[in-house]
Amino acid sequence: IKLNEDMGKKFFKLNASIGSLLENDPMVSFIPLNIKDEDNIELVLAHVDNAIQYGEDLEPKPPKDLDE
After folding, report:
1. pLDDT at 40
2. Helices (H), 1-68
3. What is the CA radius of gyration of the chain?
4. CA 49 to CA 29: how far, in whole Å?
5. Distances (CA, A) of 11 to 16, 51, 56
6. pLDDT at 37 (0 to 100)
7. What pLDDT score does 3 carry?
8. How far apart are CA 51 and CA 15, in angstroms?
9. Per-residue pLDDT at 33
10. Of 30, 38, 50, 66, which is least packed with CB atoms within 10 Å of its CB?
């Protein structure tokens, strides 16, 4: 309700549609971003990496020899 008051009548349908999508579609989620909180930024980046499967196709690096 507060979002609709702050945004005005122009965006009421958009807000309702986004809210409905977030509530009804299990493949869609919302993660708030606080640019002043480093832990929050890391959390958002981890979710993005997971969503796009970043690094999944990379070969693991071989372990270094302890003799060297």
Report:
1. 95
2. 2-7, 12-24, 38-52
3. 20
4. 15
5. 9, 28, 39
6. 96
7. 65
8. 24
9. 92
10. 66
Length of the chain: 68
Residue 42, token pair as written in the block: 């890391």
- What is the token pair recorded at 40? 């929050």
Rounded CA-CA distance 43/29 in Å is 13
Tokens at 64, concatenated:
């270094």
Longest Cα–Cα distance of the chain, Å, equals: 70
Amino acid 53: pLDDT: 84
Residue 32's identity, in one-letter code, is: P
Pair 19, 27: CB distance under 8 Å: no
Residue numbers in the chain where pLDDT is lower than 70: 1-5, 67-68
User: What was the pLDDT predicted at 29?
Assistant: 83
Torsions phi, psi for 66 (to 5 deg): -75, -20
Could you tell me which residues come within 8 angstroms of residue 58 by beta carbon, excluding any fewer than 6 positions away? none
